[in-house]
Structures
1.
Amino acid sequence: MSQDSPIFKTATELSADLTAGKISSVELTQAMIERVETVDEKVHAFLHLDKEDALAQAKASDERRSTGECLSPLDGIPVGLKDVISVKDQPLTAASKILENYRSPYDATVTVKLKQAGAVVAGRLNLDEFAMGSSTENSAYGPTRNPWDLERVPGGSSGGSSAAVAAREVPLSLGSDTGGSIRQPASLCGVVGMKPTYGMVSRYGLAAFASSLDQIGPFSTTVEDTALLLETISGHDPLDSTSFPKEIPSYSAELKKPAQAGVIGLPKEFFGPGMDDEVRAKVEQSIEHYRSLGYQTKEVSLPSTDLSIPVYYVIATAEASSNLARYDGIRYTSRSNRAQNAIDVYAKSRGEGFGAEVKRRCLLGAYGLSSGYYDAYYLRAQKARTLIRQDFERVFKEVDAVLTPTAPTPAFKFGEKSEDPISMYLSDIFTISTNLAGLPGISVPCGFTQSGLPVGMQLIGQAFEESSLLNIAHAYDRDHLYGRQAPNL
Amino acid sequence: MDIDYVANLARIELSDEEKTTYQKQLGDVLKYFEKLQELKVDGVEPTAHAFPRYNVWDQDESKKGFSALEALKNAPQSRQDQVVVPKVIEE
């Protein structure tokens, strides 16, 4: 396919082309649909694509524009959603059998915001069932493949959202991040992915996994596009009592202002053994680049880092076991036809409808919350969470952002970790503490390995300082634009 | 971990094969969690939310919700604007 095709353009470029009348939203959406039809057989990022609905939205955008009306820079631009974000009358499976026939009766708040911005909300993207996993192998509808190497995983849980952008099936997508589920797949697929500060983006209409950790966030090929999508979906929402009342600046306008080079912290606990050599080399090169731009770097310490995986899995599974109680075979999930009584309806419907990792996590969560174990697991983990949060508070007195690798390795092969939960859990080692502390984090592509697999670096910012974090990320990204390199498909 | 006890708490029916597999896998995970038990947490306040907000009130106004038809659209079985379930009370 020609490199001039609209599918290779960023949302920012497409927005300019739409304004200049060089392309219509219908033409753009048609090009996206054709791309999905050509490559998704290989990639399997999409669980569902309602073409008619997408083209109808595109047509409405073109009609608006023809009367001189444009709702936002995203007007007419397709955005794919992870299949845990509600869109009225569209399916939402959460990649689970238990929601096979479910259709959302309402829009999530982010969906409302995208529609108000005129975006073409198109496509339901694959994930690990209920966002539990780091490889998208836990989808009940088959795994997504990494567009850079179809033998490898795209990461997870938002593997469909990262792969769809990497494969140039959509210029933008949304995922959700509970312990790294946006940043890790962004890193493995060579695109930008960002988890905002907890409370910046409404969770209303997001199928909940762990409510104190979940955040919705953007995927794109550049930091510039991430800023554009983030400012569209952020903001206080009365329908989510954990959403924070905070003024949202125009992040994309802030990017254009000259930024002062600040101080970047390098946590020594994140650069220890266990990291792939090529990942280490690429991340060290990106640190060098920041130095060449005038940034100061400083070794810092986050001593509670080694607690983050146990703390995360105790808290996240406890919250999950409670949240997933709603999938009970009664009101809106499929019901086992072997059920004789009420308890049967729950146990058999869930036994038939949930996959292995979801079962493991519900069991683990129920155990950690159960009588006699609550103090030893859940309460202790919540206290340890305080220590992790305090580590970051201390470090952010001295630095503007913290830089780490996003994942310890590039994309791994299918089946490599799927039978060993702990080794899979360790692929989130660098991203998890950000969720526990509620901080914003972004993964930016920082090069490729010898064998052509993408590598990502992670920047962690201060709470509610998305603008500063995006500026620091953009300072690197605009000089490299690794996310703009497209795989051969 | 008493897998039958926990499966009942979680209301998930497991096959014998699943019980054997999860018993072992979750045993390994719990062993990995042991470093939590060594941690000194005396006097540390627990964190439930990174940025807790208290008393988030809403105006006490009635708002339009789903119609019965919309609310029941995804129900596996319904009749006369209600969800049908197996009998709960024994005779």
2.
Amino acid sequence: MTTQETAHTQHRDYTGAKLGMWFFLFTEILLFGGMFLLYAVYRVKFAADFHEAGKEMNLLLGAANTVILLTSSLTMVLAISAIKQGQRTRSIAFQSATILLGLVFLANKYFEWTGHIQHGLYPSAPELLARGNGTTLFYGLYYVMTGIHGLHVVIGVGMIGFVLVLTLRKTVTSADYVKLENTGLFWHLVDIIWIYLFPLFYLIA
Amino acid sequence: MENNFYHTKGKFPGILGWLFTTDHKRIGLLYLGATLSFFFVGVMLGLTMRLELIRSGMHIISAQTYNALFTLHGVVMVFLFVIPGIPASLGNFILPLQIGARDVAFPKINLLSWWLFMAGAACAVTSLFTGSGPPDTGWTFYIPYSIRTTTNVSLAVFGVFLIGFSSTLTGMNFLTTIHRMRAPGMTWKRMPLFTWSVYATAWIQLLATPVLAITLTLIILERYLGVGFFDPAKGGDPILFEHMFWIYSHPAVYIMILPAMGAVTDIIPVFTRRNIFGYTAIAASSLAIAFVGYLVWGHHMFTSGMSDTARIIFSLLTFIVAVPSGVKVFNWIASMYKGSIRLDAPFLYVLGFIFLFSIGGLTGLMIGALSTNLHVHGTYFIVAHFHYVIFGGAVFGFFAALHYWYPKITGRMYEEHLAKLAFAVLFIGFNMLYFSMFIAGWEGMPRRYYDYLPRFNTPNLISTIGSWVLAMGLVILFYNLIHSLLSGEESGNNPWEAATLEWQTTSPPLTENFETIPEVTKGPYQYR
């Protein structure tokens, strides 16, 4: 039986499902790529301002978030490994842990943002504009890039919640776990984007 | 006739069986109905613009209304008609049939794509009526005006964002379908060239659209939050917006033209009873156009203040991207040599396509040259150029494909004499409407102006009359297709005696496309 016959008769194509997800991830790279392009242009133009503004980022929270996301990618992989071995309860536990870590990430982001906003450093704020163009654009990029990234964390948490329910309902099993794997792929992308954001905003000081 | 996909007994009754369908054929028709409706709206907008421009100094609308009209004409035609155009409607319907599959790789995502398209269209239409009225920025939304205008830019732009998301998902779907679901024996080199063109188009839909998505998002953020990326007062650069906008919008024009070229390539062998000349070259040229098309966006910005070096490079690349299109034109002509020609409507539209697209393409080379561009940028010469390639090219190709696949979709034949008449009227009206624009533009008439100097009166009068002739042609064309739905002759499965797989099943197709999945042993165009 060829793979294509299987795809036709059983309406299930593991390789095809993964391929579709990889294509979609490629589009996300392009989406964030546009923002990284903006960052590159303005970093070159306002190098000194970016360096100074980088010092005001909360390195502790940023580093913590990096560790949190890396760990959540680990728990995601362990969740997939568990379901492959038929260990449903373990997979559910690891998926839950991933969601929890994602929520902690978002909480940290909330504290960071409110911290900056309370200091009057948000788009169009007079205090920010008074600091000059380079700093204004640095913070603009900071909010837009971590904001759109944060939106993807929210989406990712939602996706993991969805496959968690499917795992509970035994729709996702050791025989058919591609939905969990594809969710994992999306989560890893969210993680990798953060790995690029972290040095560009927190480590350039 | 009853055992076809129109009569599938699905989960949902009546119209819900269409709105919630995951059948690629039904989704294709949903797109077809929607896009043709938007085409009609765009035509009305265009006719109104031409009426305003019938004579220097005479007005039927205000300048503000005119600005809104040309913005909407662009947004509706580009985002709601031509870009979804062939891929979403005919691509959805024909692609799985052509490769011997039962559906696309992700049928539910296909339905989601259509819902996103309709949601985006709803946003765009709503922006006409709420708040301070329809956008007046031009479909290109250039900064700073798109930030400062109080008109409904954010809602319109968000609608386009949703349509873009729809397009991206369709691209992903088609790529996976073509990679994974070809019938046994259908190697890459046995795929029809329409499939090849849909494949190349899907790559552009996949990778170019996200850049539009972020660009549009940044407009909305700028309007609401004043982030400053494109605002010089805050250190930003408005030209950077133009770069980001055109990095999508140039590849977008290849989304528009490649599937039309693919349909043309499929039609020629059937109506000349010959194998296509240069199969590999045509397939490769589709990929080449898709790839090089990403590199030429700067030719929309030659007068924006870019460096000479940048402009020279973009100009050179623009000349290079014309080469694969030229390869196609030569191969199409060569395919007709010593053919047994059947001059029916699909083939007439193909001939019209080749002629009109060639004019558009050659004028494209003229304006790709820096020296000429400086004089004609922002004039009607540009307007004429892109209408020749998009309308004369992509849309005539679409009309060819509509007539060619009409019996496959409906099980009936359209009326041939009426179709030929429609083509003749359309062709004459088209050239009156747009060739006069080349003249006006060359003489210096600027675009996006609601009035002009009296010396441009003659070409404008001819152009407006041409628009009426064109409209008549469209009326005849669509009257024919709609009337034939009800009273056309039954076509049989394969009225054209074509060799590609979609013709080896019933017209209209069965719900599951084929009784048994065919095994492919030869190429798609073996007639002689």
